[in-house]
Amino acid sequence: MGAAWRDMRGRKTNLRDIKEMVSGVKAMEMEVCVTLGMIDAQQALELKEAGLTAYNHNLDTSRELSHVREAGINVYSGGILGLGETDGDRIGLLHTVSTLPAHPQSFPVNALVPIKGTPLGDRKPVDFTEMLRTIATARLALPKTIIRIAAERKTMTEERQALCFQAGANAIFTGDKMLTTDCNGWEEDKVLFER
């Protein structure tokens, strides 16, 4: 579950509602992962007590990873490709994640989904080979981490998704929406995996 805000500061009502949702999903005997931006140590503890399994941070919020880890919540930490970064920036992302005190349990590889009318709405989508290179390098640098294909997967053909798995990805995010963008739904993914 995700929220499109920068941090949890001043969001007591939101945190209460999110804890209720976490408890509800956990009661169905499912793992629960949220991405809520930057959180403090107290918020991390409250989410853990509600039953949270994992917390997703993109690397821009990495200084809060210690709050999540210390609360006993699994860490998912990745990045977004296609924001105008250089090859060196991508290497820096992978170096930073691979030299954390402990590797994240999951590394989501996102590609920017340009949305008309937003500041990056006219940006050209990231070249697919950059996605593959990032996944393959992440697999080498983070050998025990789950590498997830995330945002922008909706536009990939089945062949491209298969190439991502051959390059080292071993998980996806599924569902009809990923924050504000369309995502592959479970029924579509189920057909893909069966094929």
List the helices and strands and how they pair.
Elements: H1 12-27, E1 33-34, H2 41-50, E2 54-58, H3 65-70, E3 74-81, H4 87-98, E4 106-111, H5 128-141, E5 146-149, H6 158-167, E6 171-172, E7 177-178, E8 181-182, H7 186-194
Parallel strand pairs: 1-2, 2-3, 3-4, 4-5, 5-6
Antiparallel strand pairs: 7-8
Walkthrough of the structure:
Pfam families: BATS. Its cofactor is [4Fe-4S] cluster. With 195 residues, the protein is an alpha/beta fold. The protein folds into 2 domains: 1-72; 79-195, TIM Barrel, CATH 3.20.20.70. 39% of the residues lie in helices and 16% in strands. It has 7 helices and 8 strands. The protein has helices at residues 12-27, 41-50, 65-70, 87-98, 128-141, 158-167, 186-194; strands spanning 33-34, 54-58, 74-81, 106-111, 146-149, 171-172, 177-178, 181-182. The strands form 2 sheets. Strands 1-2-3-4-5-6 form a 6-stranded parallel beta sheet. The protein has a two-stranded antiparallel sheet with strand order 7-8. A hairpin with a 2-residue loop joins strand 7 (177-178) and strand 8. The chain is globular, with a radius of gyration of 17 Å. The two termini are 28 Å apart. The mean pLDDT is 88.
